[in-house]
Amino acid sequence: MFRSRDPLQELLETICGHVYFQPPENLQLKYPAIIYYLSKLDKIYADNSSYLSFTAYDIVVVDRSPDSVIADAISKLPMCRFNRSYVSQNLNHFSFTLYY
Predict the structure, then answer these.
(1) CA–CA separation, 100 and 16 (whole Å)
(2) In the chain, which residue ranges form alpha helices assigned H by DSSP?
(3) pLDDT, average across residues 17-46
(4) What are the sequence ranges of the domains in the chain?
(5) 36-70 residues labelled b (16+ CB within 10 A) or e (exposed)
(6) Least confident of 22-26, 42-46, 69-73, 92-96
(7) CA neighbor of 55 nearest in space, from 1, 19, 16, 14
(8) DSSP 3-state of 70
(9) Which of 8, 16, 51, 95 is 20 to 30 Å apart from 59, CA to CA?
(10) Per-residue b/e over 16-27, b at no fewer than 16 CB within 10 Å?
(11) How far, in Å, CA of 82 to CA of 97, rounded?
(12) Residues 5-24: pLDDT tens digits?
């Protein structure tokens, strides 16, 4: 079963004031922002049963600044991996995978 993502939401809100979980396409986002999505569940098995599971989230920081302090703060979270950065619609996007 999935863990509650409320602690993750609260943690991300301490880093940035605009945090969105799987926002619908018609929602007007405010920037800078953190957008995150449930990515996958990884399980470790032993003795024919699951004894450890990890929930992975794809996190995208969207900021006007190419030197985003928000992306820097996300990169310092435990179990976080930087994937790539790109520019779209004159906004800088920083992609991460976070196991939480």
Answers:
(1) 18
(2) 6-15, 69-75
(3) 93
(4) 6-99
(5) beeeeeeeeeeeeeeeeeebbbebbbbbeeeebeb
(6) 42-46
(7) 1
(8) helix
(9) 51
(10) beebbeeeeeee
(11) 7
(12) 899 999 999 999 999 999 99
Amino acid type, 69: V
Q: What DSSP line would sit under 36-54, residue for residue?
A: EEEEEEEEEEETTEEEEEE
Predicted local distance difference test score (pLDDT) of residue 36: 98
Which residue, chain included where needed, has tokens 């940035």?
16
For residue 2, pLDDT over 80 is answered with no
Quickly name the fold that domain 6-99 has. Answer: STM4215-like (3.30.2000)
